[in-house]
From TrEMBL:
This is MFS transporter. The lineage of its organism: Bacteria, Bacillati, Actinomycetota, Actinomycetes, Micrococcales. It is a multi-pass membrane protein. The chain crosses the membrane at residues 42-69, 81-102, 109-130, 142-159, 171-191, 197-219, 240-261, 273-294, 306-323, 329-348, 369-390, 396-415. InterPro entries: MFS (IPR011701), MFS_dom (IPR020846), MFS_Efflux_Transporters (IPR050189), MFS_trans_sf (IPR036259). Residues 19-32 have a biased composition (Pro residues). PANTHER family: CHLORAMPHENICOL EFFLUX PUMP RV0191, PURINE EFFLUX PUMP PBUE. It is found in: Cell membrane. It comes from Citricoccus nitrophenolicus. Residues 43-418 form the Major facilitator superfamily (MFS) profile domain.
Length: 423
């Protein structure tokens, strides 16, 4: 959730004092020389291509699970570990890379991250066995958060200060477009030509990103960054910890459903397999709508937006569990999950940046890791309830329970902060 996919907070938010939240902000790099407008546009476009590839790599697996399972003669729940291992890769890679590369030249780091993404994607494409495929998915997830965060911040330094939010949003637009175009296209390719073709497409996008960054992104050096001790110190702040816990648990419900979206739509809702790409596109449209409405709502109140987002997630999951057999309702619920999820993740991201103060890099990276922990948690627990014979409605019920826990954590966070402010 990545994630991330929610970083498109409007420039209006910046004007109201809410920093636009890239997937994981890093210390502000300084361009070596003034950048012409055309150069900046091409550089931002190349970074958006990378975001498009990352979004496709993260979510395409959900639509390919039946084909991956058949290809390795495994169960769908065994194949679903490809989702959780990618997410665990993000959980490990996001904070680790943010902490260890704060002073590294940005373009070189972006190239290294893109290369790692390509290697992991090729490994997924050519994997001779399920364990090798799972290891490749873990490797592909490692550069996910760092590339998105560094790319967004580098983009912001290529333009004038009053256009930084727009530049960052355009990089993150690649994530949104990936869920509308890339993920459905990968699912369609997988259904028609085999699941390896879809991962081959992801690897190709990664190669294009590598060449584009090499040719189009100017070199830049990071400014003096806060010390690692200060960065890690933010993780001791109660409000930072509570925010991360709320995201880790509350968003797991959505991933419990989305991991098994393909069999749920075909076996419960009765849709043909050929409709799955369109269902995935609906989720992408929901994310886009959610990112558009999140900015103004979060500008008005971070806390109310977070509570509204997670409450809406719970309601939609309950409706899906009850009425998944009705195709129109099931598809509408997928769209609404995208809307509510974008609102919730945007609110938590801005909240975390506010609570992190002047050392946001590691805690913001942990925010990205938290949502991917939710991805892994939802996929694993969803597999448990399906393996228990409870059917493909059960992940939605499980997800509703997770959102209740996340809502309780979020309420505690809001109440405790208000008390602290009064004191």
């Amino acid at each position: 959730m990545t994630v991330t996919r929610t970083a498109e907070v409007s420039a209006t938010g910046a004007a109201h004092g809410a920093a636009p939240p890239p997937a994981e902000p890093t210390p502000q790099p300084t361009p070596a020389a003034p950048v012409p407008v055309a150069t900046a546009r091409l550089a931002i476009f190349s970074l958006a291509i990378g975001a498009f590839g990352i979004g496709t790599a993260e979510f395409a697996t959900m639509g390919l699970l039946p084909y991956i399972a058949a290809g390795f003669d495994a169960s769908i729940t065994e194949a679903s570990h490809a989702v959780s291992l990618y997410a665990i890769g993000v959980v490990v890679g996001a904070p680790l890379i943010a902490a260890l590369t704060a002073r590294m030249e940005r373009k070189r780091l972006l190239l290294g991250l893109a290369l790692l993404f390509v290697i992991g994607s090729i490994g997924s494409t050519l994997a001779p066995s399920l364990p090798v495929m799972l290891a490749s998915r873990f490797l592909t997830g490692l550069p996910h958060g760092a590339f998105l965060g560094i790319g967004a911040v580098v983009a912001s330094t290529l333009v004038s200060p009053n256009r930084r939010a727009t530049a960052m949003a355009r990089v993150m637009l690649g994530l949104t477009v990936s869920n509308i175009v890339g993920v459905p296209a990968a699912a369609a390719l997988g259904a028609q030509f085999g699941w390896r073709t879809a991962y081959g497409l992801v690897a190709l996008i990664g190669m294009v990103t590598l060449v584009a960054v090499l040719c189009l992104v100017p070199r830049s050096a990071p400014a003096q960054a806060p010390s690692i001790r200060r960065e890690l110190g933010t993780l001791k702040r109660p409000q930072v910890i509570i925010t991360l816990v709320a995201g880790s648990i509350g968003f797991g419900g959505m991933f419990a459903v989305y991991t098994f979206i393909s069999p749920t739509m075909t076996e419960v809702a009765g849709l043909p397999a050929s409709a799955i790409p369109w269902v995935l596109a609906c989720y992408g449209v929901g994310m886009t709508v959610g990112s558009l409405i999140a900015g103004p709502l979060v500008d008005r109140s971070i806390e109310r937006s977070a509570l509204l987002g997670i409450s809406a997630l719970g309601v939609v999951l309950l409706v899906l569990a009850a009425l998944a057999q009705v195709p129109a309702v099931a598809v509408a619920c997928v769209l609404l999950l995208g809307v509510a999820g974008s609102l919730f993740t945007t609110a938590l991201q801005v909240r975390l940046l506010r609570e992190s103060g002047d050392a946001p890099s590691v805690s913001a990276a942990m925010n990205h890791a938290a949502f991917n922990f939710a991805n892994a948690l939802g996929a694993i627990l969803g597999a448990v309830v399906v393996d228990a014979g409870l059917g493909y409605r059960s992940p939605a019920l499980l997800g509703a329970g997770l959102t209740v826990v996340g809502l309780a954590v979020m309420i505690f966070a809001v109440v405790s902060r208000r008390r602290a402010v009064r004191r």
